[in-house]
């Protein structure tokens, strides 16, 4: 059984997926962490983030460890996870995610994972797991999402909102909801309310 949870930045995908996965007793996988890992390694290597031939050789020892408690991304024996959510990575990840060669690499990592699992990202229900029986797509207004992000990163809310809106625009190509996905506006709901909405759907 595969559950896909897609949506725009800061809509609650990771938190909701973790809650749903823990309730179901299955792992969840955050596909965005792989794009973030490619971006981080590219930045650290001084590589051109728009050049897949410069990025792919950096990925030979990268692996995603999906745990019910949270995902970890390793580069050989180096845990990258703590460095993946930063404004620096946010600034480059859409460039990396636009590369077909990188998307193929990420998709292969994801499809190699055993079911059951909860998979979250932008295109889990459309491209990576199109036959998944349960698909959800989370939304919220840019302002609501910026206010949520601001609680994690003490930055100016209008600046965060502008950055999220720009990343939404850059990610448009791969971010459309699957036609058979249930769309949930998470703005009026608590985090637990979104989790319960999905769990009720799965019963
Ligand atoms: N429905 C909600 N109500 C309030 N806060 C939420 C809700 N969903 C998520 N959050 C919080 O918003 C922040 C961003 O959520 P996250 O799961 O990281 O989103 P995404 O993975 O879509 O970027 C986190 O701090 C999370 O706890
Ligand atoms: N399946 C995916 C997941 C993420 N991406 C891209 C789009 C996002 O800007 C980056 C980072 O994704 P991530 O889910 O970590 O970002 P947010 O938590 O939504 O801020 O990767 C993608 O193109 N396809």
UniProtKB/TrEMBL annotation:
It comes from Deinococcus soli (ex Cha et al. 2016). Residues 147-184 are annotated as: Disordered. This is Cytidylate kinase. One of its GO terms (cellular component) is cytoplasm. ATP binds at residues 7-15. One of its GO terms (biological process) is pyrimidine nucleotide metabolic process. It catalyses: CMP + ATP = CDP + ADP; dCMP + ATP = dCDP + ADP. Residues 147-156 have a biased composition (Basic and acidic residues). SUPFAM superfamilies: P-loop containing nucleoside triphosphate hydrolases. Keywords: ATP-binding, Cytoplasm, Kinase, Nucleotide-binding, Transferase. InterPro entries: Cytidylate_kin, Cytidylate_kinase_dom, P-loop_NTPase.
């Amino acid at each position: 059984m595969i559950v896909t949870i897609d949506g725009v930045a800061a809509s609650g995908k990771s938190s909701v997926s973790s809650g749903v996965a823990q309730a179901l007793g299955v792992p969840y996988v955050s596909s965005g962490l792989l794009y973030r890992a490619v971006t981080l390694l590219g930045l650290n290597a001084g590589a051109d983030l728009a050049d897949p031939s410069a990025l792919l050789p950096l990925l030979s020892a990268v692996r995603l460890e999906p745990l019910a408690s949270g995902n970890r991304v390793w580069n050989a024996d180096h845990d990258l996870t703590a460095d993946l959510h930063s404004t620096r990575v946010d600034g480059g990840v859409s460039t990396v995610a636009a590369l077909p060669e990188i998307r193929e690499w990420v998709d292969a990592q994801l499809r190699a994972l055993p079911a059951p699992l909860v998979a979250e990202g932008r295109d889990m229900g459309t491209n990576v797991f199109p036959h998944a029986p349960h698909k959800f797509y989370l939304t919220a207004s840019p302002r609501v999402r910026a206010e949520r992000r601001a609680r994690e990163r003490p930055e100016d809310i209008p600046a965060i909102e502008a950055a999220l809106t720009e990343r939404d625009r850059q990610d448009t190509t791969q971010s459309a909801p699957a036609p058979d996905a249930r769309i949930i506006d998470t703005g009026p709901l608590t985090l637990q309310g979104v989790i319960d909405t999905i769990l009720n759907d799965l019963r």
